[in-house]
Structure formats: structure tokens, C-alpha cells
């Protein structure tokens, strides 16, 4: 139960980086469970993968348009998932030192779309057909943008010692270029599309242009609309009763008067719990404190 509560807490209060990692892991688990069930029932595993893989052919893509987004959150092989998530968490953490979670989410999507566009264009030019799956293009967009914005930032690597981000990005891109003739040539083409997108983002940021702004504005509008749709409707107050004006005695001094102290108490309690989490971790909370945390979060949602 503690594991589930920890996951719920990290999803609810974690950064966009944590949420992106969680989504990728969840899709990986769902895909593998689905293919296992299909295999047991004698059905081909490709039925499950076909729902998330993006085809290079435009007619097929028009039939499955959602795959333009689903492919960039999907991994079927564990090592593919592990490498992408380590890379994403590593560079994403550095990215957030100088940028926002919203911009990182936008760049993740942009990188995936950039990789998809180059993949489709390249396969069309070569008159070839293929399927694309994996978050590598999205991750490479964040890697490249981070390396361009903070080229001198050094990280320690096993056996190699400290190395600058710019060299990590350059080595990664060179490997993709050299791997285009291999069995996963289409995937490496998509990686380059993501890297190009990340470079465009970083260069635009240097010039004071935030290309993530349109995406952020769109997502804010969708979230606000969803909140308005799902928000509980407030009952209309009676304006009259028995032919005259009716005043609710508790409105001015009772009900409304108690809201502010209650809200202040919730805020103080929440601050106290979050301070304890920051110092000692979520596991240090007592059962009562965990319950209070979730109760307060529901009230202020």
C-alpha cells in the first residue's frame, strides 16, 4: 500500500519530468501485458503494437492519426525503455535548472513530431514503408536543447570521467548518423528529427523567442475548459421567500466567515507536511499525516 501511495504522491506533486517517465513506463507495461494476453490466446502480438506504432505511409496514418502522438510514449523492449528513460531523466533534470516544466513538455511533443515528420519524409523519398515506435526523438530534442543552452555543464561517466554536455550530444548524433544504414535506420532518422527540433528550440530561446508558447497556451485552455466542465455546480441562492427578500443569516458571519480560517489552517497544515516530506521523504509521514495530505489536496483541488 505504501508503494501505491508513494506513486500517487509522486504523480500528483512531481514535476512534468516525473510524469513523462511515468507515462512511458505505464504504456510499456500495458503493451507487454496486452501482447502476453494475445500470445496466450493465439493472436499475433502485432495487434497491440499496431495501435501505437506510427506508419510511414500517409494513407495508413490517416486511418490511425493518433499514432503521431502514441508512438512517442511507447516502448516494447525493456532496454529501449531503460535507455530512453535514463537519458530523459538525466538531461531533463539539467533542462529544468534553467527552464520550466511546461516548456519541457512542449519540447517533448515537438521533438516527437519533428522526428515523425523527418521519418515520413525520408521514407516517402526512398519509396519505402516502415513503422516507428519509441520516445527517442522526443528525448533527443531535450538532450540537444540542454546541450546547446548549457554546453559547458559537465557530468561524470563511468570509465570516462567528466564530460561536457555538448560532447555527449555530438557523440549521440554522430552515432545516429552512422547507424542510418542499419536495421533500425528509420528510428535513427527520427532521432535526428528530434535533435533538429531541440536545436531550433534552443537557438530560438537565445533570441528571446519561446516556440513552446503556442503549445502551452493551447494546453492551458484545454485544462481550464476541463476544470470548468468537471467543477461541481454551485446551487443558486434563493433571492426571495414568502414574497419578500430572504437573507441567509449565516452567509456573512457564519459560512463565509469560517472559510478563510479553514483555508488558512489547511494551508498551514499542508506546508508543515510538505516541509517534512522535503526533509525526510514521503515515507517518513505517519498514516494520519498521509491521510491529512490527501484530504487537504482534495479540498483545495
Automatic annotation (TrEMBL):
Regions crossing the membrane: 21-41, 78-98, 105-125, 131-148, 155-175, 187-204
Domain Peptidase S54 rhomboid as annotated: residue spans: 65-204
Alphabetical keyword list: Hydrolase, Membrane, Protease, Transmembrane, Transmembrane helix
A GO molecular function held by the record: peptidase activity
Family: Belongs to the peptidase S54 family.
EC number: 3.4.21.-
Domain of life according to the entry: Bacteria
InterPro entries named in the record: DUF6576, Peptidase_S54_rhomboid_dom, Rhomboid-like_sf, Rhomboid_protease_S54
Region: Disordered, residue numbers: 234-266
Location of this chain's protein in the cell: Membrane
Domain DUF6576: 267-298
Group of enzyme by EC: hydrolase
Entry membrane topology: Multi-pass membrane protein
Protein name per UniProt: Rhomboid family intramembrane serine protease
GO biological process, one term: proteolysis
Amino acid at each position: 500500500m505504501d508503494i501505491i501511495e508513494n506513486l500517487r504522491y509522486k504523480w500528483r506533486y512531481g514535476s512534468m519530468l516525473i510524469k513523462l517517465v511515468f507515462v512511458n513506463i505505464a504504456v510499456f507495461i500495458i503493451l507487454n501485458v496486452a501482447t502476453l494476453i494475445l500470445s496466450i490466446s493465439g493472436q499475433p502480438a502485432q495487434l497491440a503494437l499496431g495501435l501505437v506504432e506510427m506508419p510511414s505511409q500517409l494513407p495508413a496514418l490517416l486511418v490511425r492519426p493518433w499514432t503521431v502522438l502514441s508512438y512517442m510514449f511507447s516502448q516494447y523492449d525493456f532496454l529501449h525503455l531503460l535507455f530512453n528513460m535514463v537519458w530523459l531523466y538525466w538531461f531533463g533534470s539539467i533542462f529544468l535548472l534553467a527552464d520550466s516544466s511546461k516548456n519541457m513538455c512542449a519540447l517533448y511533443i515537438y521533438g516527437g513530431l519533428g522526428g515523425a515528420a523527418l521519418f515520413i519524409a525520408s521514407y516517402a523519398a526512398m519509396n519505402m514503408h516502415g513503422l516507428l515506435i519509441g520516445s527517442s526523438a522526443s528525448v533527443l530534442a531535450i538532450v540537444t536543447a540542454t546541450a546547446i543552452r548549457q554546453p559547458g555543464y559537465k557530468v561524470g561517466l563511468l570509465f570516462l570521467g567528466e564530460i561536457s554536455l555538448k560532447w555527449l550530444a555530438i557523440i549521440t548524433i554522430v552515432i545516429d548518423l552512422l547507424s542510418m544504414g542499419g536495421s533500425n535506420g528509420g528510428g535513427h532518422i527520427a532521432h535526428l528529427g528530434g535533435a533538429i527540433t531541440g536545436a531550433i528550440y534552443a537557438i530560438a530561446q537565445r533570441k528571446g523567442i519561446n516556440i513552446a508558447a503556442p503549445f502551452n497556451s493551447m494546453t492551458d485552455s484545454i485544462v481550464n475548459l476541463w476544470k470548468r466542465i468537471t467543477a461541481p455546480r454551485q446551487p443558486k441562492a434563493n433571492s426571495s421567500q414568502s414574497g419578500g427578500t430572504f437573507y441567509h443569516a449565516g452567509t456573512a458571519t457564519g459560512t463565509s466567515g469560517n472559510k478563510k480560517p479553514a483555508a488558512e489552517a489547511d494551508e498551514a497544515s499542508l506546508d508543515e507536511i510538505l516541509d517534512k516530506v522535503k526533509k525526510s521523504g514521503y515515507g517518513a509521514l505517519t498514516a494520519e499525516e498521509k491521510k491529512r495530505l490527501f484530504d487537504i489536496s482534495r479540498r483545495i483541488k
